[in-house]
Amino acid sequence: MTGGWRRRVIAGCVALLAVASGAGCATIPTGSPAEFEEGVLGDPLRKPYVRMIAMPPRPEWGPGHVLEGFLAAMAAVDDPGWSVARQYLTGEAARAWRPDVRVTVYDKGQIKPPGHLPENATEARVTLQGTRVGAINDEGKYSAELEPQNGPIQEFKLVKEPAGWRISEVPHGLLLTEADIRRSYRKVKLYYLDSTKRGLVVDEVRIPLDPKIDFAESIVKRLLKGPTATLREAVRNALPAGTRLRDVWTEDDTVIVDLNEAAANAISSGGGDDVDAMAAQIGWTLNQLTERWEVEIRVNGDSFYAGSGTPLRVGYDRYGHFDPWLIGGARDTYVMADGALQTVGAEGKLTPVAGQAGQPGEAHIDPAVAAQGRTVAALNEGSDAIEVAPLVQGGQWRRWITGKNLTAPSWDRYDTVWTVDRVGERSSRVYRHDGTQQTRVAAAGLETVGVQNLRVARDGVRVAAVVEDQAGVHVKVGIIMVQASGTQIVNLQTLATAADGQKIVDIAWRDATTLLVLTSSKSGQEIIAVSVTDGTSEPFKADARIDSITAFEDRIIAGVMDPEEGKSEVLYWDSKGAWVPLLKNPATAPALPLG
Fold this sequence. Notes:
Elements: E1 14-20, E2 48-54, H1 63-74, H2 83-86, H3 91-96, E3 102-112, E4 123-137, E5 142-144, E6 150-161, E7 164-169, E8 174-177, H4 178-184, E9 185-193, E10 200-208, H5 215-225, E11 245-251, E12 254-259, H6 273-290, E13 294-299, E14 302-303, E15 312-314, E16 333-337, E17 340-344, E18 350-352, E19 364-369, E20 375-380, E21 385-390, E22 398-402, E23 410-411, E24 417-424, E25 427-433, E26 438-441, E27 450-456, E28 462-469, E29 472-483, E30 486-497, E31 503-509, E32 514-521, E33 524-531, E34 537-541, E35 546-552, E36 555-562, E37 567-573, E38 579-581, E39 588-591
Helix pairs in contact: 5-6
Domain GerMN: 216-308
Protein name: GerMN domain-containing protein
Signal peptide: 1-26
């Protein structure tokens, strides 16, 4: 999120202190706004925060000042029950108000006072104006506004009581600035399992800080609640039903997670496989806080395996087999050169891959490389078939999917190829091939639009598509739901819409939750990194000649076609923020595994 409006603080309304959660000392900043540097010192379970101490309303405050104090009190981390904020409300409003159902996030806030009021006035209306930039629902899911607009956010009715002005009408939920969110919430990745229970899937939420408890406790409790609605139909939870957190603490550089007896039921499920899966979920979720400390899971204070006394310890990377894509590391880059698929080595040296795919003159376009770099899929020249070839000596092209007008292929992490057949201007069919047969996939949100591109994320659960309908061209993101009755693409939501005169050229997954969108307009080209979990985005400049992109984490590679010179080139985004040639030879269609 971008920097937001900083509230002018009424004297005596609030006090700001920069503290570490649980620390015994505080520093009072001399200026405004308060600044703090986030860090974990000593105990990884503590999170630093900027402390805002809300003060109750004063009898002499007018309606505008009362609303300002109420907004400040809603943002007070040290008052998680909002007891001070309720003092700004009438008795009836305080009893009815439910602050925990949602959060409206705004920027550039201004309070529009009621104007001149006679001394005997008993009612007033005050309006908060600004720009709605997002919202957090009761699951902690943040959603950015696609098109933030400035205007009235909320009108408040106030009445004059003997103790002063009080708010009599207030909507459920909280109203917080972007600065409030940065100060009092933390973005957290929760890890669940895909339908096979072999891979981890990230769910991102915002969790409020509570100075009374360790942040690790808040994270584990939220993990136990299960995934958000957007992922619920596609993921599994290895933590057995009824599992509750008893406590979290540290011992000798180890984080102890003490669960109740229900957690032991994972032992009897799947021959112990669910124990590993449960440990992977907890370990990966806590790793973002503990910075690679070891985690030990206990049951009712005892070792997880009570009979033998053997502890269940979760070391960083110990459960990396649940998702090697979480670990990172080098990945080969592939390009098409001289009609053959080739790998890019040191100093841009090209080496043809093994098998028929590496032979010159092959008539294939838009290659996609499977997870382990052992197989390639590509469109034939007529775009009516997707063919697959093993990257081994003697590997031959085999036809996997046939259609009328297919999109470029995309692999999921279990070696299944996905594509869309565009059978009409507004008619599309999604197909997959798992190595045994071509299967149509139900995808209600894609079947009545024109699909230009489809990409499966590296988690094998999320899917992105560029589609065109009567309203324009959009980037949509959904999930792959696998059930006994079949596979479906569901929960499609619009991530971005092309503006007038703008074209969506290509998309690529940077990681499981970040989608790169390449756009083109009269003003030039731009790549936008969009978080598919909350809609926040970060743009950066693209070379005007780029016509395709592929990515893995910080590595972004682009294919370039110079229309004036008729030359093809491959570029990469370097650490200095510039596009640099990856190799000297002409090449096209750069690809990274699962990119």
